[in-house]
Design brief:
The protein has 145 residues and is an alpha/beta fold. It has a single domain, classed as Rossmann fold (3-Layer(aba) Sandwich), CATH 3.40.50. It contains 4 helices and 7 strands; from the N terminus they run βαβαββααβββ. Strands 1-7-6-2-5-4-3 form a 7-stranded mixed sheet, with helices on one face. It is globular, with a radius of gyration of 14 Å. The two termini are 15 Å apart. It binds adenosine-5'-diphosphate and magnesium ion. The site of magnesium ion has 5 residues, from α2.
């Protein structure tokens, strides 16, 4: 079972990300799912805020990953949109960031077959500012897809 939320603007999505951050712990891997412009990066900004990141969070589309030192936990934010094969993931040291102390947020996690996120955030709705956001947590036994 997932928990379903609706947000009416970017600020509300940031608040929801902040709320999720309060329950995150080291080693959590969060898949952020939804099409281009759904609000994955906006949600990530909220999570970062909640983890105590001061820096501005921007999309890692071209860099593939950005790491932030939150005062509560370190955050690694990935965007795998441009990843074409598993080998590229190894080149960027992707697997070294998983587990350990980091919280990992992964946009387009479906482009990397080998990840097992324990939390999934599915954002849908586009065209206007309303978004439906479903959060599947570990206890929901999310197994991919
Ligand atoms: P993605 O990372 O999923 O491609 P972004 O987070 O970069 O998408 O962009 C989402 C865009 O949608 C932003 O321009 C944001 O201002 C806008 N937006 C409008 N309404 C919302 C909402 N309810 N939640 C999140 N973003 C929203
Ligand atoms: Mg994005």
């Amino acid at each position: 079972m997932a928990t379903t939320y609706a947000t009416n603007n970017a600020e509300e999505t940031i608040s929801l990300g902040e709320k999720l951050a309060a329950s995150l712990k080291s080693g959590d891997v969060v898949a952020l799912c939804g099409g281009l412009g759904a609000g994955k990066t906006v949600f990530a900004k909220g999570v970062a805020k909640g983890l105590g990141v001061d820096e501005e969070v921007t999309s890692p589309t071209y860099t593939l990953l950005k790491q932030y030192m939150g005062s509560r936990l370190p955050l690694c934010h990935f965007d795998l949109y441009r990843i074409e094969d598993e080998q590229e993931l190894e080149y960027i040291g992707f697997y070294d960031f998983l587990g350990g102390e980091n919280v990992c947020l992964i946009e387009w996690a479906q482009n990397a077959g080998n990840i097992n996120p324990n939390i999934k955030v599915q954002i849908s709705g586009k065209g206007n500012d309303t978004r439906v956001i479903k959060i599947y947590e570990e206890k929901d036994a999310y197994t991919g897809g």
